[in-house]
Automatic annotation (TrEMBL):
Keywords: Hydrolase. It comes from Finegoldia magna ATCC 53516. GO terms for molecular function: phosphatase activity. This is HAD hydrolase, family IA, variant 3. It comes from the Bacteria. Pfam families: HAD_2.
Length: 216
């Protein structure tokens, strides 16, 4: 029986991945740079920090990594405060799980200073026991230690916990660990839909379609 739920945030609770996926291009536009397709392909294989440094080095930009991060954080924070919406059916679903006595947390790669205000802005922060970020625990979401840390804080285990995720690399990890999984569709993962569908217990576009029998 499922008693606990772990939710990703971006692309799972909040419709924000489209902005995250293009924010590095927005930064380049701000610098007056128009990258070619080859450069964009190279950027997509890098982390946010290494992308910023690579841009500065390639185009001889006299800015620091922090300068780039400040632009990106400002852009994303503005999105959380003024642009992004919840995924369809989120509030009703959270209310339903709360009424069922399900204890919930958020497990995100987004840093605390962005994630907590984002959830608060959407009016859903209080549904969760805690918000876990990669920075706060020192692990990435592709590492089992990240998820084990969330289980420990919840006081749960793999057998009584369900994970809600949109990203394939996270789904790969929790699938290997034996979690029950609900996949959430997002435009950022459209190329992974078929693979994700094979790994999850249910794949949904809206939380209105969630099968609550998964919690039995």
């Amino acid at each position: 029986m499922i008693k606990y739920a772990i939710f990703d945030m971006d692309g799972t609770l909040i419709n924000s991945m489209y902005k995250w996926n293009r924010v590095i291009l927005d930064y380049m536009k701000n610098l007056g740079i128009t990258p070619d397709d080859d450069f964009i392909k190279k950027i997509k294989t890098k982390t946010l920090l290494t992308s910023i440094d690579y841009i500065h080095e390639t185009f001889d930009i006299k800015k620091t990594t922090d300068d780039g991060l400040n632009f990106i954080y400002y852009t994303i924070r503005n999105g959380y405060m003024n642009e992004f919406d919840l995924k369809p059916g989120v509030v009703d679903m959270l209310e339903k799980l709360k009424s069922m006595g399900i204890k919930m947390c958020v497990a995100t790669a987004t840093e605390d200073h962005l994630a907590i205000p984002a959830l608060e802005k959407q009016g859903i922060l209080d549904y969760f026991e805690f918000v876990q970020t990669c920075k706060s625990v020192g692990y990435h979401k592709y590492e089992e230690e990240y998820w084990n840390n969330a289980l420990e804080k919840l006081g749960s285990n793999v057998d009584d916990t369900i994970v809600f995720e949109d990203a394939l690399y996270c789904i790969d990890t929790v699938d290997k660990m034996g979690f029950k999984i609900v996949g959430i569709t997002d435009e950022s993962t459209v190329n992974d839909y078929d693979i994700i569908d094979e790994k999850v217990d249910q794949y949904i576009e809206s939380y209105d379609d969630l099968d609550y029998d998964l919690f039995k």
